[in-house]
Amino acid sequence: MNISIFNQTLALLAGKAVLLADGTLIVADLHLGKATAFQAKGLAIPEGDSDADLRRLGTICEQVGASRLVINGDLFHSPAGLTPEIEQLIETWLLALPIPVQLIVGNHDRKLSRLPASLNPVPTTEAGGFLIVHDPADVPAGRPAICAHWHPVARIADGKRTSLRLPCFLLRGESLILPSFGSFTGGAIISREKGDRVFVAPGDRVIEVPQELLRR
Q: What are phi and psi for residue 152, nearest 5 degrees?
């Protein structure tokens, strides 16, 4: 689904990614190694989410013909999750990806003593007329931005007493907040503000949710 922000057109993808007009693909909040971090605390969480998420991301890059990939924060979950196996996984994946990759450092990434240099980590970057920054609170007033961090989820009425919870894109003012890309991340029901627009992908395409169907 294409939307326009400050005369810039971008595509919201059902795979929880956004594609800018200049070919930049943006995702956020993969939280690689989260299962491993939970295992270290004694919880029997199955492996496989990090590998599957990276393969899924590589497929999206190929399908849309992305010229550049920006990961908008929290690629990693915690120091405990950055095992040698996860490091090897990400390095192998980066070598196989035929486009440049850049990591915007998120709050979870900052907990790590080091980040792989091949990710070219930076606090913010720009692409397609947008500032790309992890936390919406760090966006200067009046700047069109693409953010993350909140893991937004829409609660949508499907009956008088029932509702669905779906990851969503939230357009608030000049900022587009992305859903979390990782399969093991969870999310938070958005607290709506006047003027918000909410987009979900219940199937293979993105649709806008009418305001009257949104629940708190």
A: -65, 140
Using CA atoms of 35, 40, 42, 44 in order, give the dihedral in degrees to the nearest 10.
30
Residues near 163 by Cβ (< 8 Å), separated by ≥ 6?
A: 155, 156, 157, 215
Q: Is 201 helix (H, G, I), strand (E, B) or coil?
A: coil
Q: Which residues contact 128 (CB under 8 A, 6 or more apart)?
A: 8, 10, 20, 21, 22, 24
Is the pTM higher than 0.90? yes
User: Is 1.10.287 the CATH number for 2-215?
Assistant: no
Burial class (CB in 10 A: 0-12, 13-18, 19+), 189: middle
Q: In DSSP terms, which residues pair with 154 in a beta bridge?
A: 166
Query: Per-10-residue mean pLDDT for the chain, 216 residues long?
Result: 88 97 97 71 64 95 97 88 85 95 95 88 95 97 95 87 89 96 89 93 94 86
90-104 per-residue burial string, b: 16 or more CB within 10 A, e: under 16: beebeeebeeebbbb
Residue 115: Cβ-neighbour burial (10 angstroms; 0-12, 13-18, 19+)? middle
Closest among 103, 109, 175 to 136, alpha carbons compared: 175
Q: Which residues contact 47 (CB under 8 A, 6 or more apart)?
A: 35, 36
In the chain, domain spans: 2-215
